[in-house]
């Protein structure tokens, strides 16, 4: 039986796998900032969710250029460019905080995720190439298992170093202060924005240190990089003719959208439905991530016995059922259903990724860009859910707009389940 990671590639595998935790940290220190900016700057749910639009917009813009870059150069150089942009984006939080300008924070997020697009476009196919093709999906699931560890750390930092330290004035109190003492409100806002910026400054320093580590380390060339390379246009034609690949990209867009919506708006759900503080609500988000981490390792083990497409389909069905519970069930039971969704999501990203790139060889470099471009689902869907919440549409007395808004994640799970069923049928 082929080893998941050959002995000779363990060090580069560990080094590249560390990047999965690094971008997981960025993702999940950022999700709670949607609620934080709403309260600090007195903006709507739709406006605050533009944090996610800017964050995931970087993936949309930079995925294709990143793929072309690594196709013409190397995986290592792609990683270095990604780390450089990631670090630069983090450092931009300092002038953004000093300027007290929301657009400047959005720009910082955008630059940061241009770097993350390089890292993900590079690291995922690089991990797939580190061993036999028949173990590629398991290898990527193993590497992706460390992504939620970074995510959980990011959540903890957001809870303890940001949310719990923000001024406790409510939105209503801030609005009143805006009308009576705008200078006092500005001082509170400046203090809060400084608290938000501090952890990003520390993150930028950590990323810069990792940049130096990669710069001085020797990384092997992937086997595919020794083969004759086709033109970008020829590769693109082959990919657009590949029905499995195109459907995988669509499924990935819906998956990323549902992941970001569930983890972003769990805070609003707990606040509106259960009158919890943001810091307390973030604690439930951390529980969800802990479940996600555990489920990732369990699902990686189960892939030894079940086909990836079948496991994907049934987990999507489970996610749809839990989401329905979050919509229809009131109080803590609904919140528990929302937390439980994370157990069903853990397998999805790397499994869809592995299904899409199986057998593509050197074409995987450009193909990976389409799958990273699909992260744009996280760019578009959270603002749509935020808009649903803002509209305050009620369906009778039982369903608030926050609960109704989770119909959008429910739709995403249905699409993913249909994709899993389709792949399973053709295998």
How would you describe this structure to a colleague?
The longest helix is centred in the middle third of the chain and has 35 residues, at 182-216. With 427 residues, the protein is mainly α. The relative contact order is 0.15. The protein contains 21 helices and no strands.
Q: Indicate the low-confidence ranges by residue numbers.
A: 224-228
Secondary-structure element order, N to C: HHHHHHHHHHHHHHHHHHHHH
Shape: globular
What's the number of domains?
1
What is the CATH homology-level superfamily?
MFS general substrate transporter like domains
How many angstroms does the end-to-end distance come to? 22 Å
The CATH topology turns out to be Growth Hormone, Chain: A
Rg over alpha carbons: 21 Å
Give me the secondary-structure topology.
Elements (H helix, E strand, L loop, with lengths): L9 H21 L2 H9 L3 H4 L1 H23 L2 H17 L1 H7 L2 H28 L6 H9 L2 H16 L8 H10 L1 H35 L15 H9 L2 H32 L3 H25 L5 H21 L3 H14 L2 H10 L6 H10 L3 H15 L9 H4 L2 H20 L1
Helix pairs in contact: 1-7, 1-9, 4-5, 4-7, 4-18, 4-19, 5-7, 5-11, 6-7, 6-11, 7-8, 7-18, 8-14, 8-17, 9-11, 9-14, 10-11, 13-14, 13-16, 13-17, 13-18, 13-19, 13-21, 14-16, 15-16, 15-17, 15-21
Short description:
This protein has 427 residues and is mainly α. The chain has a single domain (7-220, 232-426), classed as Up-down Bundle (Growth Hormone, Chain: A), CATH 1.20.1250.20. Helix content is 79%, strand content 0%.
């Amino acid at each position: 039986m082929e080893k998941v990671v050959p002995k000779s590639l363990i060090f580069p595998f560990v080094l590249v796998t560390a990047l999965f935790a690094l971008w997981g940290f960025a993702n999940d220190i950022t999700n709670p900032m949607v609620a934080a900016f709403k309260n600090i700057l007195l903006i709507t749910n739709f406006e605050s969710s533009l944090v996610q639009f800017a964050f995931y917009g970087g993936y949309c813009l930079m995925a294709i250029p990143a793929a072309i870059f690594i196709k013409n150069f190397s995986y290592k150089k792609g990683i270095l460019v990604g780390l450089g942009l990631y670090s630069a984006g983090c450092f931009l939080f300092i002038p953004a905080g000093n300027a007290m300008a929301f657009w400047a924070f959005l720009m910082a997020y955008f630059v940061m995720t241009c770097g993350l697009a390089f890292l993900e476009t590079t690291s995922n196919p690089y991990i797939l190439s580190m061993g036999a093709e028949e173990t590629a999906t398991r290898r990527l699931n193993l590497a992706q298992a460390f992504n939620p560890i970074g995510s959980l750390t990011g959540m903890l930092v957001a809870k303890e170093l940001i949310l719990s330290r923000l001024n406790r004035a409510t939105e209503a109190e801030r609005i009143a202060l805006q009308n009576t003492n705008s200078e006092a409100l500005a001082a509170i806002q400046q203090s809060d924005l400084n608290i938000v910026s501090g952890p990003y400054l520390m993150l930028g320093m950590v990323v810069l240190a990792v940049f130096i580590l990669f710069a001085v380390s020797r990384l092997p060339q992937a086997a595919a990089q020794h083969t004759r390379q086709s033109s970008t246009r020829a590769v693109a034609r082959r990919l657009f003719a590949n029905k499995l690949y195109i459907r995988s990209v669509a499924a990935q867009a819906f998956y990323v959208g549902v992941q970001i919506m569930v983890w972003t708006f769990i805070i609003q759900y707990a606040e509106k439905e259960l009158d919890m503080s943001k810091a307390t609500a973030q604690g439930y988000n951390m529980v969800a991530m802990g479940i996600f981490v555990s489920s990732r390792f369990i699902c990686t083990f189960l892939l030894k016995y079940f086909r990836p497409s079948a496991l994907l389909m049934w987990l999507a069905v489970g996610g749809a059922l839990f989401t329905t519970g979050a919509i229809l069930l009131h109080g803590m039971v609904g919140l528990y259903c929302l937390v439980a969704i994370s157990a069903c999501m853990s397998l999805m990203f790397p499994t869809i990724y592995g299904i899409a790139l199986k057998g593509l060889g050197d074409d995987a470099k450009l193909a990976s860009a389409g799958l990273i471009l699909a992260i744009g689902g996280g760019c578009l869907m959270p603002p749509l859910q935020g808009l649903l919440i803002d509209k305050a549409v009620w369906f009778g007395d039982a369903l608030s707009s926050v609960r109704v808004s989770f119909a959008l994640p429910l739709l995403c799970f249905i699409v993913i389940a249909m994709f899993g069923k389709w792949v399973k049928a053709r295998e």
